[in-house]
Structure formats: C-alpha cells, structure tokens
C-alpha cells in the first residue's frame, strides 16, 4: 500500500481515495499466504490426479483379463499402503527429531551432534504425545559424555578450582601482575 500512497500523495482527497482502494482490495483480493497455500495444494493435487490417471489407463488396458485386473488392483492397493507407511514413518521421525532437539536445546554445545547420539528406536511417542525413553538416554549421555553438555552456571562466591588471581588490583593496572608474582615468590623487588 505504500507505493499507492506515494502515487496519491499529491491528489486532493487522497486519504478518502486510499480508504476506498484499501476496501476494494480487501474485498476483491486474496492474501499472498492464502494464495501460496492454495497454489501448493493445487500443484500437489495435479500430481495426484496425473498419477491416478496413469493407474486408470493401466487398468483400462487390462479390462479384458479379469485375473490381470485383480492383480493390478492388489498391486495398486499395496503401493498405496506402502506410501502411507512411509509417510507415517517420516512423520514419526520428524516428531522424534523435534522432541529431541527441543529437549536438548540450551543444554548442549551442539544439538545436532548430541541428537545424532540418541537411539530413536528406543524412544517411543505415546498416544498422549509424551516421549518415553528420551530422558534416560540424555542422562546416560550426560554421565558418559559430559563434555558435550554445557556446564552449570557457577556461583561467584564459590569459585571453581584452578588458578585464581591474588588480591583485587585496580583495573588496567599494568604492575598488578608483577606485584602478585613477586608476592607469591617472596621477592619484594621489581
């Protein structure tokens, strides 16, 4: 609509004209998202229709032989069952992948790497949508390969073991490190 406002800015009664045009567009046009959805559905349906037409032509050619027709129908039914099973398997895999990524998000350094270590065959999606077996695998990975997981945030009052700075020198003091080293070795000279 901005392009239209730019064109109409110098005309008298431009705001009334804009309102009338916006109303007309709202009543006579479809949103881009709705158009894309319908267009994608149309394309998929065209592919499905071509596939069905091919199947019907094949059946037409074998009308003379009843046994051949029965075999073709059984073959087509089996193909359709196979396609449905593949779709259900892909859907389950997608659900498991999303559940695993959601469970690992923010807990690990590399979600894809850790998700690849989860055995999807041992994870089950219940009828209520709950994932069974995922928490146990994540806990096992956390115990055995803890380096893949982000550490817990540390309390500033309880520092982690290791080298610690001595004292509280003023920030940006170039002599602070030398003083700390000298104090640690009992050397008072600089």
Description:
The mean pLDDT is 76. The protein has a two-stranded antiparallel ribbon. It is built from seven helices and two strands; from the N terminus they run H-H-H-H-H-E-E-H-H. Helix 4 packs across helix 5. The protein is an all-alpha fold and 190 residues long.
List keywords for this structure.
190 residues, mainly alpha, two-stranded antiparallel sheet, 7 helices, 2 strands, 62% helix, flat
Could you write a compact summary of the structure shown?
The protein has seven helices and two strands. By secondary structure, the chain is mainly α.
Cα-based radius of gyration, to the nearest Å: 34 Å
Mean pLDDT score, rounded? 76
Stretches with pLDDT under 50, minimum 5 residues: none
**What class do helices, strands and sheet pairing give?**
mainly alpha
Helix fraction by DSSP (H/I, runs of at least 4): 55-70%
- Report the span from N to C terminus: 73 Å
The main β sheet shows up as:
2 strands, antiparallel
Order the strands across the largest sheet as they lie in space: 1-2
Based on Cα principal axes, name the global outline. flat
Order of helix and strand elements from N to C terminus: HHHHHEEHH
Beta-strand content estimate: under 5%
Number of strands: 2
Please give the count of helices: 7
